[in-house]
Amino acid sequence: MTLADMCIEPGKPWEYCPREVFRKVVKILKDEFDLVVNVGFEIEFYLLKSVIRNGKEEWFPIDKTSYCSTQAFEVASSIFEDIITYLETLNITVEQVHAETGKGQYEVVLGYTEASTAIISLIYAREVIKSVARQHGMMATFVPKYAEDEDGSGSHVHISLSRNGENVFMASGDSKYGMSKIGESFMAGVFNHLPAILAFTATHPLSAFWLQNFLALCSSDYYDGTIFHRNIKGFMIQGGDPTGTGKGGTSIWGKKLNDEIRESLKHNARGILSMANSGPNTNGSQFFITYAKQPHLNGLYTIFGKVIHGFEVLDLMEKVCSPLCHLECESYLSFSSSLCALVILGSYSARLIKQIDIEFTAVHSVFSIYFAL
């Protein structure tokens, strides 16, 4: 295996060579700001075994255990012993290994180090994991959605900046956002360039389509000052209309979007996130979150996410049962194959900040909504 630069002639890198562009950015940070980028990766993947059925080869998860189950390693312990041994031979630190939420899904957490080293370690680690799986007669897959009815796999990126070995993201106790000015500026840059980042973090066409619309509306302040104009106990809460009437709102392309109805996605639980519409193929900027199962909505509304954490906040929202909160998009917290958006909701009363985490359905993409109730 060879990692190489893309050059137009010996010793002269092509201006769009990814490695060269990365080196330039790292050099600018060091020369102009005396900052070093440190990165840590969490690698999620499925381990599949081959089964011959009716003369055809099919692939199935190697186990059916739950998140962080020790039983998940009864069939995989020898695989991970080899993975860790080979990675240590390559001087790649493994901080943690555990079973993930999907059937046959695992996560390997790599050590935190300088960005250029971390990226190379990520490439080698993926190759090692795939190779060891093959040696054991299995297949390791890193695809974002191995199956529509299984949890997605991410490649979570943890990023920080340091100066003289000290993390510069940390702030004093009186900081408004719990982050230093340098940290705020860095995250503002991530927020500003999010549309371009999506090309790398959400490459699935459907994922990019809905993510681009929703997150671009957030980043453009389109939702700022809007309210959740419908809040019906036992049904759903709806927002995203700048007119506050339930009749306004458009997509980032200035037109209505066609439905993306998928048979495998159902309004079968509390916390399903869908696009609101006024009829077939009339999606714009409005969205809703269900308070309970709503099977009569299946096939009529495009589902593009679900609540995975923060259901207690949804409980508080449901108790109000009236038009609720002003919506303001402040910034984005972090990104990887999962995207994390910070959205502040300011209410008319108390100022208690709460959080709901949403996972997008097309790929493993997560954003966080912070509610002030």
Automatic annotation (TrEMBL):
Residues 18-373 form the GS catalytic domain. GO terms for molecular function: glutamine synthetase activity; peptidyl-prolyl cis-trans isomerase activity. One of its GO terms (biological process) is protein folding. It comes from the Eukaryota. SUPFAM superfamilies: Cyclophilin-like, Glutamine synthetase/guanido kinase. Keywords: Ligase. Residues 212-320 form the PPIase cyclophilin-type domain. It holds the Pfam family Pro_isomerase. This is Peptidyl-prolyl cis-trans isomerase-like 3. The lineage of its organism: Eukaryota, Viridiplantae, Streptophyta, Embryophyta, Tracheophyta.
